[in-house]
Structures are given as C-alpha cells and as structure tokens.
Amino acid sequence: xxxxxxxxxxxxxxxxxIAALREVRxxxxxxxxxxxxxSWAEGIFLDAEFLDEISTYEHTGSKLTxxxxxxxxxxxxxxxxxxxxxxxxxxxxxxxxxxxxxxxxYATDARSSLLTDAxxxxxxxxxxxxxxxxxxLVEQVEKALxxxxxxxxxxxxxxxxxxxxxxxxxxxxxxxxxxxLKKPTIALGVGxxxxxxxxxxxxxxxxxxxxxxxxxxANVVLLGSKNEGDVAxxxxxxxxxxxxxxxxxxxxxxxxxxxxxxxxxxxNDMGLAHIAPAVGTKTLVIFGPTDPVTTAPFSPLAHVIRExxxxxxxxxxxxxxxxR
Length: 324
What we know:
The chain has 324 residues and is of the alpha/beta class. The chain has twelve helices and twelve strands.
C-alpha cells in the first residue's frame, strides 16, 4: 500500500502530529508512507525513520500553477490512501483532484463530499490535547481498513531523531557564533510569528539573559525566524550582557539540530517550544493567551509557566487590555 499524509501548516502542529505519523507506521508496517507538506517541514522530519518520503511544496506563483504542480506530483505517486491532518476544504479538494481513491479526514469546512471517509469531529476536541485529535483520525483509518483498533493504548511518542552529522554541524554553528561549549548553553525563543500577545516582554527576557549569564555563566542564544528579528534585537539591546543572536540566521533544519545540542530552551508558546522536547531538550514554555490543555508541548521534558488570569485563554493575537 502507498499512503500519503497531508501535513499540517504550523511548526507546533507538525510536531504534535508525530505520534499519529508513528501510529500510521505501526498500523501499516510494510506500507510506503509519504508526508506531503510545506517545504519548511523537511527541517523537522529529515531524519524521521517512520517516513519513506517527504514530498514538499511551496506556495509560489499563481494558485492555479501551484495546484497543477502539486496535483501532478501526487498523481505520479500512485497513492492508494490519503490521510488529511489539516481540516481545510482545499486539502480535501487537492487529494480528490489528484485521484487518490481512499481519502480520510475530519468532516469539517463543508468538505465531506470530497472525502471517501469523513470522520466526525470528536466531542472532546476542545478539552483534550491536540495529539489525541490526530491519533483519533488514524484510529478511524485502522478500524476501517484493518477492521480493528489498537490492541492496547500506549503513551503517544513525539520523539524526533537528529543525526550525528547534523548535531556536529549545530555545534560548529554555535562555536562560530561565539559560544563556549564548555559552558552550559541555554537558548531563548523570544518571538512568535503568529501572535504578539504570546510574547513575554522583551525587557523581561533581557533581565533573564543577564541572570543566566551572571549566575550560571551560561551561553545565551536567541533562536527564531527572520520575522522575529525585531524582538530579538530589542532583547539584545536591553540586556547588559548581550546574548548570541541566531534569530533569522538559521533555517529550521539547523535550528532543530541546535535545539538537540543545548541544555535548556526557554520560550514563548511557539513552534520551537515543541521541537526542543521532541529532540530531547528540557523546555520551559511561557503561556499567555493560548490554552496549554490542548496545545502545550506534549512531553515530560516540557514544563508550562503560566499566570492564570480571568481573561485567559482568549486566543487573541493582540492583547486589547494590559497584557496581564
């Protein structure tokens, strides 16, 4: 059997889906499994042993051209089964247009007619972690095609492998940036690309930077995307002992490897906060407007820091009051 899985659109969701991807491999151990996803995701899944192929795409040029290129790639894959992690109408239409005969996805966004197997959204969706939402979809695939569910429930595994070669390159990047690898190395994720309300104040991150350097003698490294360069510059400008700025200077593959080589990651609710514990690094993640019950990093290595206030979780991208 040849299976294609439509990947998610955000870094955090991509990591949260790892347990479900592993479950597809468990259910279909002999299948050829491809992940069809945005090009950035290759940096996360590059060494994933549960995938046979990472089929990437990017939104460039006209929408019609994108659809033609993606559809042709999927048709050439001769897939028997598609599993759709996104809930969008567009993802279901793409898989139908690509001619994939069996298509599983949640019955959302008025797309049931495009799916051969439209799975009802479970009642518990808003009260359980998103990892179980993806796992439930795979369980429905197993019930339909294997006529059974999992024999026993095991704890979801979100671990990611990073090769020795990538780890060595990560150490080279840190050394070249000025880190003394004989000292503890702590990275900070001071931004968040999709919400300013998620950001702990730059002045507080700057104070934290000074404490980590003074009290622990640690290397402090800022990680993030180019879109977070402004807040990284603010933190560095406010710190008495400026950190090493790698924000916007690494791609996701390099950032993932760096996270696997550091001692601790402290960040806002952002994609890298999910990657860090998945590659084996202790993580402290600061939650504000979002809900840790459903979207916190799913790992015993991750700890949520949160001040419970009456207006949270509001899920707003900008705080309309005082950012309490």
